[in-house]
User: What shape does this take?
Amino acid sequence: MPAERRQAEIKPVRRPRSSEKTKETILAAARVEFCEHGLAGARVDAIAERAKANKRLLYHHFGNKEELYRAVLMDAYAEIRAGERQLNLEALSPDEAMDRLVRFTFRHFLANPWFTSLLATENLQNAAFLKTLPDIPALHSPFVGQIERILENGCREGIFRDGIDPVQLYISIAALGYFYVSNMQTLSVIFERDLSATSPVQEREAQIVQMVLRYLWKPDAS
Assistant: This one.
């Protein structure tokens, strides 16, 4: 058998890249680019280069830079909501459920600092793009309902006090973790303490849990 024929026969078969996989890779690259440079400063060429994808594929899947940014924004919210659903909070007692939710929220911010950067970018734009995402209310309504049921169960069991707004509560939970992560560098300089180190991070998490639970507990139940 000629050498050329043998080489042709043993040459590995090139399989086409999955369309879904390509989209995920582009989304991941776009997430980094938007978080580092904002919407205005992000470049499609840079996103394609990060993703090692043809720029034409990027336009094929997402249309333009603004549509890609919308996809990144939607994906970011879908990711945190999916993580919350996996917590199985309904199977826990009210105080355990709230403890787990608080810890998850803080740890999500810690593990994904890009998320706080992305939200900062969108807030600078007055949530202009978030307002155009029709799936956002449907994505968040079940989560608010879940918190509401935890609060109701806590009241029924005599653990939590009554009259707590689930939306306001979640805003407080998110704020207590978000500020620590989004301002970690400046706070570390101001207070001359490495707030990214394990000990202060654990201390912060414990304090957030304690603050939220003490706010929820009935005076005679704590």
